[in-house]
Design goal:
four-stranded antiparallel sheet, globular, single chain, alpha+beta, about 40% strand, about 100 residues, about 25% helix
C-alpha cells in the first residue's frame, strides 16, 4: 500500500474527482488548502514595500491504495496536465507506507 497525494487549484476539483473515478480509486479524502506563490518584482517600481504574493484556493486529495491504481491515476494526471493551459498544473506525489493499523 502507498499514499497518493494530489494538489490542485480549486477550479479543478470536479475534474480531479473524475480522474479518481476513471482510475478506479473509489475511496479518497479531500482538504481545502491555500497555496501561496511568492513572486519577486523584477523592477523596484513595481512594488515599493514588498514582494508580490499570490494566494490560490486549492484542494488536497489523498488516498491509501495499491501501486497499480496509483499508476493509473498518475497517468491520468499527466494527461490532464498536458491538455491544461493553466499556469497551475496538478501536482501528485507518492509515499511509501512502512506501517499502518
Amino acid at each position: 500500500m502507498k499514499l497518493l497525494i494530489i494538489t490542485s487549484i480549486l477550479e479543478f476539483e470536479k475534474e480531479i474527482c473524475k480522474l479518481f473515478k476513471k482510475s478506479k480509486i473509489e475511496v479518497y479524502s479531500t482538504l481545502d488548502i491555500q497555496g501561496h506563490k511568492l513572486q519577486l518584482p523584477t523592477n523596484i517600481q513595481d512594488n515599493w514595500f514588498s514582494s508580490h504574493r499570490d494566494t490560490f484556493d486549492s484542494k488536497m486529495f489523498f488516498t491509501f491504495t495499491s501501486e497499480e491504481l496509483i499508476a493509473k491515476m498518475l497517468n491520468e494526471v499527466e494527461t490532464f496536465n498536458s491538455n491544461n493551459t493553466s499556469k497551475n498544473p496538478v501536482k501528485a506525489i507518492v509515499l511509501n507506507i512502512e506501517q499502518s493499523i
